[in-house]
């Protein structure tokens, strides 16, 4: 019957006979078309292959035949979904396993930047989420809004998925594009059960770190400090900013001036005069001035092009009193 027929001919929706047979689960026709060496990766009007349609329609026998004959499992449809996305959406763990065995990409993203794992969490498909976790799917992947699997699970209100994810090595401090973390979504949405899960996780985490560290207090500090200071480079700048903020808020109508002390430089006497173990703060400038490689015009408002002072003119160095101390030891 197919001897003189073009097996790759398409209808108005660009579907071949292989598309139609696969979608309808007609495995005998699929086998016949494969024996006639029909094209495997033809795309219909929605950019779907025969494999994609077979998996969408949960026709596993046809899908397996297509995979065994070399159909590409990673061709995305018009929504960016691959065959693995549809297997996860259908909670078809056996088909998902078959796709991965035939080289399907576990981290492929659709047009919403959802990986199969993120799609499974978003649709609350717990069994296939467990399967993907066992297959080492990236737990810290994020969608177009910066949401990780944990954030999506919280936003969906799924305590069971949150519990599952917290059992893994997952980043609980990850923020989405709005700057929110998973726990903050739980608090703002009044998900009390999920909030308790986060509290339990934090307690267990601190106890674990404490048991592995000879100094439990330091372990707790190391755990909470990055989350507390966030974008500040260190606790010094963070606490200094807090102090200035308190002064600003509490000063009200008072005239306030914040005067910072000079930064510490080299030592005066111990362990020996001039000892310093870094080039932080003014140390680099002091060394440059002492070696005659750098000088500053005084006052600071001197116009551009003002010649540098001679080496012996210590009174014109940038900091009055700095020059004598340096040049007397020359």
Automatic annotation (TrEMBL):
Residues 187-293 form the Thioester reductase (TE) domain. ANK repeats lie at residues 13-45, 79-111, 112-144, 145-177. It holds the Pfam family Ank_2. The keyword Repeat applies. Residues 300-310 have a biased composition (Pro residues). Keywords: ANK repeat, Repeat. Transmembrane segments: none annotated. Residues 299-330 are annotated as: Disordered. Belongs to the POTE family. This is Thioester reductase (TE) domain-containing protein. It comes from Macaca mulatta (Rhesus macaque).
